[in-house]
Hints:
Layout: H1 24-35, H2 40-66, H3 89-106, H4 111-123, H5 127-135, H6 143-149, H7 154-172, E1 193-199, E2 204-209, E3 215-217, E4 234-238, E5 245-250, E6 255-261, H8 272-275, H9 280-288, E7 292-293, H10 300-305
Parallel strand pairs: 1-6, 6-7
Antiparallel strand pairs: 1-2, 2-3, 4-5, 5-6
Bound molecules: zinc ion (ZN) (2 copies).
Amino acid sequence: MNSRPTATPETAAPAAAAPDGTGKTARLIAILRDACPEQQALLDAFAPVLCLRETALAEEAARRAAAPAASPEAGTADAPSAGKGGLDVGCAARWAEPLLDALKQGFPAVAPAWEHLREAIRADAALPAYLCLARRGRKRPALSTWSKERRLPADAVNLFAEQLARLAGAAAQLGLPEQESGDATCPYCGGRAEISLIHGTEGRRYLQCGHCSRLWRFKRTLCPHCGAEGNGILRHIFVDGQPDLRAVVCETCRHYILEADLRPRDMPLEIGHVLSLVMGHLDVLAQEDGASPLSLARPAAARAVSAAEETVH
Ligand SMILES: [Zn+2]
Ligand SMILES: [Zn+2]
């Protein structure tokens, strides 16, 4: 399975309920609705969550600017090693309930689950941080066990934890200067790249982190997992008529990454974190082809050095 949310779009609110705000995220969603009309139900379901993310990150940035001496609470709970796994757990606590409101709007069919989670969070202030860390595979019990013990649907808990972890991950990296990476490991938080983006007149390639959404430049012809390069190494899998949205499979290591060439549809670089939502069908095609998602693979270099690394779900 990939790391994208697993709740079904059938539970989505009708299109009319989607927010039509004037924010940047709403414009990005409108662009995608036009580009991928078959994904409108999914986009409508996620619209409230994505728009909340924009609001939350703006407020977190303002909060940071207002108190520059206060460092983000990144990773204080588990003190991850430097440069790895940054999560702003204070942000997670502040936005957990608003996120549940947004999920209830987008996924009303599981409204009781959101309310149970709300009660659980009010009863345990440390719960948002736990859910984020458990989603990243760094806290036991695993989310599936935790959900089962509370008789909550694991899909809903996973969706909430994933969206909260993405928000807390993005907040932890706010304002960090640009950095580089030679592979699919995020130079900001140590997460894994989940999408590759081709942008600009020169067709520059960027990788985007699935944990914190930061971007970094990457060579067009290189496999981000194993570093293989050369003619015929990277193969594109796409749906007829949509070669700009594809899975790029490395024939050497058989890992793939989703990739969007933003130029034909004139899409902005900021659309990456929204785009990955509508590319799930390419995950299916690549996995039917026998390839494994790079976003879930352990870094090739780290695997060679240490066999004892923690599992990332
Ligand atoms: Zn990252
Ligand atoms: Zn490879």
